[in-house]
Amino acid sequence: MITEKMTQDLIGRQAFDARGEKIGKIGQVYVDDRNGAPTWATVHTGLFGTKESFVPLDGADVKGGDVALSVEKAQVKDAPHMGDTAEHLDASDEQELRRHYGANGHTGHDGRSADTSAGTGRRGADDAMTRSEERLRVGTETEEAGRVRLRKYVVTEQQTVTVPVTHEEVTLEREPIENGRSGSATIGEAEHEVTLHAEKPVVGTTTEAVERVRLNTETVTEDRTVSGTVRKEKVEIDDPKHHLDR
């Protein structure tokens, strides 16, 4: 027999039918609002467990960590669909389920199933709501920011260089002749020529390599501030009858 204390422990357990055939895992448990006794549960069935079917917990028990139901797998497969997000089973929903399961659908612990059907509510694993928020995920990506080319061209400039040059000049050298050493001498006209030489600057150019130039890249790290819009969920209480003030 499944008691109120076992309610939360049922979530996620494997359910088997009366013949021991595997049906699916328990998804939600519905309890009697008056006494908290578990009365109905949903079981994930179908391909990949995408369908939720209601099963009665009357006559069910926990055996070896699994839930043994008192109904057959075929009944669960053909159970009426009550919606995937049903928060509460009203009287008409429970009556439809009882008609489908027959005697196994009787969930009245005091012999009056109609009284309990009016107060069957949903209880999750911890009766909590999950609130979600978006977060900014900041990263970096590399993009082309521009291109730089290395190009050489020719310019003409005037340069002035001082160059030392030499030239020859004429000097007159006189050598006295001692008597008797000059031999015979004659008087008349004579001429002697000397060739003078001089250097002059000569301008020319030669080409020679002076340096090698190349383009390199370096990585510079800087801080930039980015901003974006994120969404987050907030919760509020709708309590028109002020139950929380009691």
From TrEMBL:
Gene3D superfamilies: Photosynthetic Reaction Center, subunit H, domain 2. Residues 123-142 have a biased composition (Basic and acidic residues). It comes from the Bacteria. Residues 8-67 form the PRC-barrel domain. Pfam families: DUF2382, PRC. Residues 129-237 form the DUF2382 domain. Residues 101-142, 221-246 are annotated as: Disordered. InterPro entries: Bac_photo_RC_H_C, DUF2382, PRC-brl_dom, PRC_barrel-like_sf, Stress_Response_Assoc. This is PRC and DUF2382 domain-containing protein. It comes from Pseudonocardia ailaonensis.
